[in-house]
Write a structure and sequence with these properties.
The protein has 25 helices and 27 strands. The protein has about 700 residues and is of the alpha+beta class. The chain folds into four domains: about 120 residues, PAS domain (Beta-Lactamase); about 110 residues, Beta-Lactamase; about 160 residues, Reverse transcriptase/Diguanylate cyclase domain (Alpha-Beta Plaits); about 240 residues, Alpha-Beta Barrel (TIM Barrel). Helix 11 runs antiparallel to helix 12 and helix 16 packs parallel to helix 18. The longest helix has 23 residues. The structure holds ligand C2E and calcium ion (2 copies). The site of ligand C2E has 23 residues, from strand 19, helix 15, helix 16 and strand 23.
Length: about 700
Amino acid sequence: MSEKSSQTEQELQRLRAIMVSIDDAIISMTLDGIIQSWNPGAEAIFGYTELIGQSMQVLLPPDRLDEASDVLLRISRGEKLNHFETMRLCKDGMLIRISATILPVYDDQGRVVGASEIIRDITEYKIAEEQLRIAAAVFATHEAIVVTDADANIIRVNQAFEDITGYSSADALGKNPRILKSGHHDKGFYKAMWQQLLASGSWKGEIWDRRKTGEIYPKWLSISVVRDDAGNITHYVSSFTDISERKASEERVRHLAYHDPLTGLANRFSLHERLTQALDLAVRNKRLLAIMLLDLDHFKIINDTLGHPTGDQLLIQVAQRLSSSVRHSDFVARLGGDEFVIMLPEIDASGDVAHVADKILKSLSEPYLINGQELRTSPSIGICLYPEDATEDQDLIKKADVAMYHAKANGRGNYQFFNEGMQQAALKRIRIERDLRVALVKQQFMLHYQPQLDLTTGQLVAVEALVRWQHPEHGMVSPMEFIPIAEETGLIIPIGDWVIQEACRQLAQWRTGGINHIRMSVNLAASQFSDRDLPARIQEILAQYDLPSGSLDLEVTESMTMKSPTDTVAMMKVLTGHGQSLSIDDFGTGYSSLAYLKLFPISTLKIDRSFVKDIETDADDASICDITVLLAHKLGMKVVAEGVETEAQLKYLLSIGCEKIQGYLISRPLPADQMERFIRSHTTMTSLGTIDLWN
Ligand code: C2E
Ligand code: CA
Ligand code: CA
C-alpha cells in the first residue's frame, strides 16, 4: 500500500468513526434520491436500521413528496442548502421536525453525482422554543408576575408588575417581595400564608399592598412553588391583579342596594336591617324606640301638575331637611314615592318623639324653592313606639302607617301617635273592603233618590241617586263609610258603574210610567271621572235604556276637578258634547281656582249643606251662599242648595236668587217606589196649588 493510499485509508477511518459516533443522521444519495449510506444517527432518528438502496421518498411526509426532487435538482446545479428546516416521516409513523444541511457530492471530474445530507432532529428544540414564546406572551399579560429564587429574591418581574406597583424591574430585582407590604396585615396573616404555600404548593387570596407612591391598594394574589425533579424548591412564582376598581364598583353596587338613588337616603332594605339591629339593642338595653312614618301631603298633585322632575327636586329637598332635623344616631329612609321612615333608637320618653315630630313638621312645611318657583307641602306623620305599641319591625311600621293614615284623615300636616282605636278603625277598613267585594257579587247595593225642587216653577226637576249598602249583618251602611274605602281600593269603578246603570234603568222605568220631566243626577268618584272609558260607557248605558242623553246630570267635586284641570276640561267637554250636564258638588268645601272654574263647561254649582245649615245664624255662611249664587250667575251657572231643612233656610235662599233646593224639607232620600209616589203626588199638589212656600 502506498503512503498516499494509507493516508486516504486513515482519513476514511476517521470519517467513518465520526459518522458512527455522531448523533446527527448522515445520509448520502444519488441524484435520483437512492440512499447510498446510512449511519447509526440516521437509524436513531428515523428508526430504520438499513435503507441503503431505497429511495429517499420513504422519509417524506405525504404532503411533501415533491420536496426530494426539488432539493436534488438544486443540488445537481451545485447549490448548497444550509439548515434547511422541514418535516420527515419516521418508521413508526411519527412526524419530526428536522434541520438539514445538504451538499453536492462530486466525482473526479468535478461533476455532481449525488448529495450528502446531515440531519438534526429539532422537534424538541422547536417545542421548547414555542414554550418560551408562550411563556413570554404570558409574561406580557396585564397580570403582574414576579418570579423569585428559592430564597425569595426577585429575579424577574413583568411590565404589568411595574405598572401596578410603580416599581421598575431595576428597583425590584434582587429584593424581597416584602418591599410591597402595606402593613395592613399582621404577622399571623403572613405566617398562615406561608404555611399553606409550603404545604399545598400554592396560595390564593386578597391582600392589601402599598405602591411605590405610598398608596395602599387591594390585589388578588396567587403564589405557586416551583420544585425541581428532586422536590427542592427552586422558585416562587406569584401573579396578582389590582382589584381596587372592582372593589370600588362592588362598593357602588352595595351602595345602590342599600340606598335610594334619588335622595341618597337609605332604602327599605337597609331600614329593615337597621331596625332589626336597633330592636336587638333596645331589647338588651331596655330602651324605647320610635318609628315615624311620614307621607307628603298632596304630593301627587304637585307631581301631576308640575311634572316629575319638579316632584323629584321636592323629594330631594325633603330628604335633606329630614336628615338635618334628626340626630346623628337617628336613621332616615325613603320607602318609595313620597313615603319616608325615621327611626329614633335613643329616646327616653314619647315627649322626645313629639319634639322631633314638631321640628320635622315645621321644617318640611317651610316653602321650597324649585326652579325659581315657590312650592309648599306638609307632612302627615304616624308614630309607633317600641315596646308600647309593637315589638316586631314589620308591626312597628304597619302601626306607624295606621297612625299616619289618621294624620291624613285629621286634615294632614300633623302627627299622630298610634293607638288601639286606630287599629280598630284600620281593621274595620279591611273588613269593609272584604265585604264590599262580596256586596258586588251578591248585589247588596240599592239606590235611594232625593228630589230637587225648582224654586222658580215649583216643579220637581230632578232626583239625585244616592247609593245604599244593605249589609247582611250591619244593616244599612252609609256611603260616607264605604265610598272612601271603595275609592282607595278601586272598587268604586264597578260600584259606580252599577249606580249609573241602575239609575238609568230606574229613570227609563219611570218614563215608561209617564214621568217624563225628571232628570237623574249621579255622583261620580274621582277615579271614575278620570277613567277615559267613562263617556263611552255612559253612552252605552243611555242607549241600552233608550234614554235621551240630556236626562243625565253628573256630579263631581271641586277637588276632583282641580287635581288636574287640563284633563278635567277635556273630560268635561267630551261628556257635555254627548249631552250630559255637569254639576260641582259640595261647592265651597274644597279649593277652586276661579280661572279654571270659568273654563269648565258646568251648568250647576251645588252649595254644600254645611253653609246652608247655619244660613240664618252665621253671617259668614250666609255670605258664602250669597257669593256662590252671584258667582254662579256671573259664570252662567245655576245654583242648587243642598241640605235645606227649614222654611227659613228656603226663604233666605229664595231671597238671594238660588234656583233650586234639595233637602229634608222637600224629601229625605227614598227608595224608588216611594220616590215614584212622591213625584206623582207632588205634581198633583203643585197643580192644585197646595204648596205655597214661596208666596
Ligand atoms: P252628597 O252627594 O252631598 O249627597 C247628599 C247627602 O246629603 C246624602 O247623604 C243625603 O242623604 C244627605 N242629605 C240630603 N238632604 C239632607 C238634609 O236636608 N239634611 C241632612 N242632614 N242631610 C241631607 P248620603 O246619602 O249619606 O250620601 C253621602 C255622600 O255619599 C254623598 O254626598 C255623596 O258624596 C256620596 N255618595 C252617595 N251616593 C254615591 C254614589 O252613588 N257614588 C258616589 N261616588 N258617591 C255617592
Ligand atoms: Ca251629590
Ligand atoms: Ca253634596
